[in-house]
Amino acid sequence: MATYLDFEKKIKQIQEDIIAAEVRHDEHAAEILQRDLEKEVEKTYKNLTPYQELQLARHMDRPYALDYINLLMRDKYEIHGDRHFRDDAAILCYLGYIGEERVMVIGEQKGRGTKNKIKRNFGMPHPEGYRKALRAAQLAEKFGIPVLMLIDTPGAYPGIGAEERNQSEAIARNLLELSKLNVPTISIVIGEGGSGGALAIGVADKLAMMRYSVFSVISPEGCSAILWNDPTKVESATKALKITSEDLKQLDLIDDIVDEPLIGAHRDKEGAAKAIGSYFLESLEALRAMSSEERMDKRYRRLTGVGAFTEAPLR
């Protein structure tokens, strides 16, 4: 059963009416309702608030990294373990092909259902997860294979064990080492990009976000609790934080917005996967058109330019 958010209720009703018309073999009614559905989708999704986009980014039916890996990759082989402590199931590393291109895909996986959520630690990686990601990225560099990273996490796991195994160092190490990789790297926020947990696989030649994804230094819930001590101000916090793809593109903090289906990846998984695959292949072609020196210089300038601003002269 599909799950609908409050602002999707009209869409749900029309889709149910279409199914009823098809059961009655009333093709004329189904055709009219289909046009109504297209109009309602455009009306609804082209006027979303930042909080509604946050709800879509966290939607329980939204595809996770493993969904995209299964839809996009062929002849894939999973890489396990960080060679130091254990295998962290919150981070996935797959070597295989997208189209005719060899690729290493690294993704954060939240998991569905209680058993899987616990296995994946709700998409919150431990230090060994980030060390596994770095091992996979360096393996890709050894063989000249481009890297695609799929970001989807509420944040790095803040538990005692993670801190004992030096969570902050693992994230910082990834920021340093990924910035030095001499192969094309592309990172895409596919759902929720939370703080350092997202940044740890977010350093790349190109950083993009899917249309209905978010990227933030803190969750809106955390922001409203800290600033106002009031959990009812989540919507205000979401708007103030500027966490949507459009906001971050305007602030020049990301390179591109991946144009997922207007109705959302949770309603059209295949269309969303196709959009990611096309973006990856097009970006890879553009990056390969540069020399290694040009690409590394552009990466350096982009990373060091984050947060740059110009002060207006005092009057």
Instruction: Indicate the CATH class of the domain at 64-216 and 244-304.
Output: Alpha Beta
Average pLDDT taken over every residue: 93
Radius of gyration: 21 Å
> Helix content range of the residues, please?
40-55%
Q: From the structure provided, what is the oligomeric state, counting identical versus distinct chains?
A: single chain
Strand percentage lies at 15-25%
CATH fold name of the domain at 64-216 and 244-304:
2-enoyl-CoA Hydratase, Chain A, domain 1
Poorly predicted segments: none
The best one-word shape is: globular
Head-to-tail CA distance between termini:
60 Å
CATH architecture of the domain at 64-216 and 244-304: Alpha-Beta Complex
Question: How would you spell out the order of helices and strands?
Answer: HHHHEEEHHEHHEHEEHHHEHH
Question: Structural class, judged by helices and strands?
Answer: alpha/beta
**Secondary structure tally: strands:** 8
Put simply, the count of helices is 14
Largest sheet, in brief, is: 8 strands, mixed
Mind telling me the CATH superfamily name of the domain at 64-216 and 244-304? 2-enoyl-CoA Hydratase, Chain A, domain 1
Give short descriptive properties of this protein.
315 residues; alpha/beta; 2-enoyl-CoA Hydratase, Chain A, domain 1; 8-stranded mixed sheet; 48% helix
Question: What report would you give on this structure?
Answer:
The chain is α/β, with parallel strands linked by helices and 315 residues long. The protein has a domain at 64-216 and 244-304: 2-enoyl-CoA Hydratase, Chain A, domain 1 (Alpha-Beta Complex). It is built from 14 helices and eight strands. It has helices at residues 9-23, 27-45, 50-57, 65-72, 113-119, 127-142, 160-164, 167-180, 195-199, 220-227, 234-241, 245-250, 269-288, 292-304, and strands spanning 73-78, 91-98, 101-108, 147-153, 185-194, 206-210, 214-216, 256-258. Strands 1, 2, 3, 4, 5, 6, 7 and 8 form an eight-stranded mixed β-sheet that branches. Helix 9 links the parallel strand 5 (185-194) and strand 6. Helix 10 (220-227) crosses helix 11. The longest helix has 20 residues, at 269-288. The protein is globular, with a radius of gyration of 21 Å. The protein starts with 8 loop residues before the first helix and ends in an 11-residue tail after the last helix. The model has no long low-confidence stretch (mean pLDDT 93).
